[in-house]
Design brief:
8 helices, transmembrane helix, transmembrane, membrane
């Protein structure tokens, strides 16, 4: 390692700007003239400022101690949760999970079918297209035994007299 001779330092490391000492006297005199011209500092503290400063700071600090609390169950969160619960409950109560084979044609009310056919404007051709040719065989109609009492009761309950007179 190279040894440094510390007692033989030639450079101090500090430099002075050029012509510093030539203009030094002028700078001091101009500064003295400025100080003699200014009588006031320009800044003034209000009266009793330092006596009331501590009280003002303590009041501001004590007011900021209260922080805003966010409730865990806000109205919006409760509304969202209850609407989701209602939707799930409605989903399970609907009959979308029922087996479609659980109903049959015997459970359908004849009045419901009549109303459907009247209000949906279904013609004879649409009804005939749903039936098979086997259902129209003569054998299905010839062997039917109709009792006169049952026929009379049916006509009295389901037809109007006026309709029968017109025909």
């Amino acid at each position: 390692m190279k040894t440094i001779n510390k007692h033989k330092i030639e450079d101090t490391g500090f430099t002075v700007p050029n012509d510093y000492f030539k203009s030094f006297e002028d700078n001091i005199s101009s500064q003295a003239k400025l100080n003699s011209m200014v009588t006031k500092a320009g800044f003034k503290t209000p009266s009793n400022y330092f006596e009331t400063l501590e009280d003002k700071i303590m009041n501001q600090v004590s007011e900021k101690d209260t922080s805003k609390l966010i409730p865990l169950f806000s109205k919006i969160n409760v509304l969202y949760i209850s609407s989701i619960a209602a939707a799930i409950l409605l989903l399970f109560n609907l009959s979308i999970f029922e087996n479609p084979s659980s109903w049959n044609w015997d459970t359908i009310d004849s009045e419901t079918v009549e109303n459907y056919l009247m209000y949906e404007n279904i013609g004879a051709y649409e009804i005939a297209s749903t039936l098979d040719d086997i259902e129209f065989l003569e054998e299905n109609f010839v062997n039917q035994q109709i009792n006169e009492d049952i026929l009379e009761t049916y006509l009295l309950e389901h037809t109007d007299i006026e309709d029968l007179i017109i025909e």
